[in-house]
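Annex B, item 7. Sequence and structure tokens for protein A, then protein B.
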Amino acid sequence: MPMLRNNDFEAFEKEGGLEQFVIQVPTVKSTVDGQSVKDILEQNPEAEGVVVMENNNPVGIIMRTAFFQKMGSLYGHSLYSKRPVSILMDTDFMKADVSDNIARIGIQAMNREQSKLYDYIVIYKNKAYLGIVSIRLFLVELAKRNEAQISVLKNQQQKLLNAHEQEVLLRKSLEYQSASVRNLLDHADQGFLWFDKDLIIKKEYSYKCMSIFNMAIGELSYLDLVTPYFGKDKAGVFKMAFDSYFKNNSPVTDTVYLMLLPSDCVIHEKNIHFEYRRIENNGQKAVMVILNDITEKVSLEKAMEDDRNKQRLLIKAFSCQAQIKQMIDEFREIFSGGYRTFFKDASHFSGDLDELFRSVHTFKGDFAQYGFISASDRLHEFENALLTVIRQGENASMTDVDRIMAHAEPEKMMEEDLNTVYEILGDDYFKQSEIIAFPKTKLMEIEERIRKAKEPLDQSSVIRLVESLRRKNIKVFLEQYRDYLQYLADRVIKNMPVYLVEGDDIEIDEEHYGDFMKSLVHIFRNIIDHGIETDEERLECGKDERGLVACRISRLDDGWFTLCISDDGRGIDLEKIKSKAIENSLSTAEKLNQMTRNELCNFIFADHFSTKDHADTLSGRGVGMSAFREACRDLGGNVEIATEERKGTSFLIKLPYHN
């Protein structure tokens, strides 16, 4: 009877030795800083780590998990981002020559400290750096082969009676190696599972998977297991990606298909991140899934975001006390019965209901602008309830509106944000006397005019002078949106655009122009959400990574002035406008094809018209732009739109100037 191998290392040696496991990973010089390493790891999500080089020779390694644990610690980012990688790298790493015996390397790898089990082995060839071997992938491959060989040994047990002692020793050796690898995986802070073309999860999965899913998952369908957590709408994405992956024959394209798979969801109140890797099993492609519990990371990011929002809210409360107080008073008035004033005539109920919805939508934008983020989010939920009444169409009644408004709980909507203000500024902050601030030069100018008057000023002249103290430069109101643009950009993960406010100095009365200035929140929200492209899109179009939002004021000779708000974004998609107009039964294809560009653009002012397929807390309701146009018309003004694909969009607003 032929002698049997006592382990799989001989097979590895015959198939190419250690070199078959060598892969290339990003390398960095020892002089770079931590931020550079962070950028490289984010740009190479498949890399488990990087190799630190000095004079073309490896001097250390930095593994992804350990790196982000340090950077994600309380002072990690500030401590390590600008420091050299020498304080981050691990100099205690395994080294081997490509010709070294695999058995020796494998035993050394399995016997490393728990914290070193996922490191790299740095490989040399002729004393020159060749690449690395991932200990984790090496041991996973070893475990699969060991499991297969154990099965073979069991089937041949009767044939091995004459070599019983040798067979026992071999089986114990293999079981020890398999148990070592399984122990390694079970004690890792990650879940590991794998499957092949049938998408049935193999029994070889780590204990962490049971901890994540709260059950045994072996022999279950992977799609049946995970799609409930990602949502039914993602089931098609999973099926398409896996079908394409197993039909494809290119390793490069395989990676692309796996990258299309959804990667983050919540499982039993834990935030889980999924990573997919291409592996082979008996010469056939398979998929390994690595699950990471990122709950702590997500909580930390949320806490940091909450802190930023609180800081922004307090800054706004300091600088815009009067405006916020007025907003809160008006909000309370509507929900305490003032909403009924919108309904003047039962025959116009539908239009009046739309007007109420626009008002609520504007409040949502106002809250967000002044840092009341929690109130804005809660008001978004209330919009959903009010929208159910609108969708009833002719069956809707005032009784439905009363019922929705009675359950609105406006104080609870504002409670969290107001508590933040009261905690720092005191419970009586918004009850303090309102002070109107104005430049000293303005007062001196009025005094000089009174002093030089040849005759005593009449009552109307004095009133006009006093009223002029209430007027502010329109640029002051526009500048207040700078911080709001930053907030919006952060929400949609885009760069804050360059924001310009320029042109003539026009002084306006806040009481008269207040509603209009507040309605501009819808313009800026649409610019950031729809107009300005993502960083990647802008670079592909040859644009600067940061967008441009410009506000230009021009005084006209006939008692009017213009405000032009423009961006250099993607422009309005007129074909999508046509498609949505037909979908919403607002026009026919024949009429749309005869319309001018300006006429097509005007559809964005129609009630409940949006090019978004789904509404979110920023836009998609189709009422914001309608509210803006109504505020413009209330002043006797008008607005025109100019747009060009990939060049941007401009809103030219013409308003009467009230002295």
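Protein B:
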Amino acid sequence: MAVTATTPAPRPSAAASRTGAAAVTAALVLLVAVLAVVDITQGTASVGPAEVAKALTGRAEAGDASVVIASRLPRMTAGLLVGVVLGMAGAALQAVSRNVLASPDTLAVNAGSYLALGLAAATGISLPLLASSGIAFLGGLAAAAVVLGLSGLGAGTVRLVLAGSALTFGLTAVTEGLLLLFPQQTEGLYKWNQGSIAQNGFDGVLQMLPIAVAGLVGLLLVARRVDALALGDDAAHGVGVPVRSTRVTAVVFAALLSTAAVTLAGPVGFVGLCAPALVRPLARRFRAFTRSRARLPFAGLTGAALVLGSDVLLRAVVPDDTAVAVPTGVVTSLVGAVFLIGMAAKARDTAGAAPADRLRIRSRTVFVVTTVTLVAVAIGLAIAAVLIGDTKLLLGDVVNWSQGRAGQAVSFVLDTRVPRVLAALLAGAALALSGTLIQAVTRNPLAEPGVLGVTNGAAVGAVVLVTTVPAAGSWTIAGGAFAGAAISAALVFGLAARGGFRQNRLVLVGFGVATGSAAVISMLIILTDPFNATKALTWLAGSTYGRTMPDVVPLALVLAAGLVCAVARRTDLDLVSLDEDTPRLLGLDLSRARLGFLVLGVLLSATAVAAAGTIGFVGLVAPHAARALVGRRHVRVVPVAVLLGAVLVCAADLVGRTVIAPAQLGAGLMTAVIGTPYFLYLLVRSRRAT
């Protein structure tokens, strides 16, 4: 059999590459200039292009000149600066980590800065802009160091995204707790966190400009050494490049750039991810863009085009009075989420599934003792949660209340407290069962409703009703939450099913859906009135505050049905969690079984979100702990995981409403504080196993 050799197409010459790169750069500069001009002409005031031109030449009326000089020009300049620094920061972070998904968002730089500024604001001390910038820099740099240390450099996209998203979730939960505890001191911080380039004068731009210039110059000075890192650590050492110091220096400069953007406009999401990704195809065509000294500025220009383009698009599509209230960062986050989902769907997944837990054989005695102990703990915790609070009660009060013989004060306390305790117990159990089903179907021990975007999707459906129909009942909110969760799950699992729910695609699509859902939630909260916004924020914190018995009924019914189904189909769960071939050999319709378990998991997660808000990591921690205690057979894992989930959420709710009484923290904030370190520990353990 003859084999015909094909001659590869010759690469363009260096001169042709430089000419093509110059032409592309000129076109991009022209695009940015056009977007800048259009952005200046947009706004609520009736100041068109002619008035803008007169204002720039000093011939406009006082009112028009004030609008242009004090508002529109600073907004456009801030968009340019933020886009440039974020684009270059993202390109630098991707180069030094050798990871195409590294960015200020995925490395939790923005979340670290958010928490640092939240802590500073909670103290009530008014800080100048430069001091705030320093605090944000330290917080963002510390978060990036943690994520890079846990994920490892060049260790793959999934571990970095998981570490970054987990740390972001935990840090954001703590910050939102500060927002609820110190509403006056932190007023405006939530809206700032969505990222807006609106400015009042040039003061902010002028103060951040030296910081941005320092970061840009620093990155360009280490550009040659950064290029050497692409050859690998050993090769870089061989040519005399200090690998560790180069990485640290580049990360510090990238964090400095991110800090300038965050301080000026808040976290403008995903510009640092999308801009370098748009440059990569050009680098394959034009060799000039393979060098950092050319690629970094081009990524900066691309970032400027993304920020200004998002602002122009927002004001062109949305009415002017509404567009003013919607931060540009919400639009860039939505664009980034779509971009990430598309990139994940097309990516070749070569990593395989995550390392499974080691097979553990536990005796029946261990299972019985564990179950009895957890039942006793759950009962004791439930009793304590009913008795302890801002008003302490006795068991006799509860007995009298159950018989209808309690006084008015005791009846009022128990009428509000008992539904809260039941909602916490049932929500924890439902989330744990949902996580157990999803981990079994995907054969991925790091899969969980929150990590995969299902929880955020359910939150979108519920928040739509909370903010637009404040009088909506529990069944209506549950239906909205299920609709949102169903849409998210269909997108995530539909795209990830190709190739057998491989870890890369599943996690990346889930991360994109969760990010897009979070942006939609932010927009809904910002556009609604302050009363509904506070109500939605409290609900998003995973609070059981104000729950009544009708709110608990849908969750109780779905949980009962889920438990019956999981126990009845426990053998199918064991088979589905093994591999692709064994279930088919034994006659199990694998596709139908997967679909059924996934629908049940989504339903459980959605009703839990509707009843208790967004509570993260329970669906991850409870199944893991259950398998560690009683082995991997689902006839034992299911009841133990359900009990663990109920205990975890009930304990979190009890601590949240008693430790700083009369103020309260949502159960979701408490589980995030517990679950984030555990999740990061699992990442470290899986890295060692790999």
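Comment on protein B: The two ends are 42 Å apart (CA to CA).
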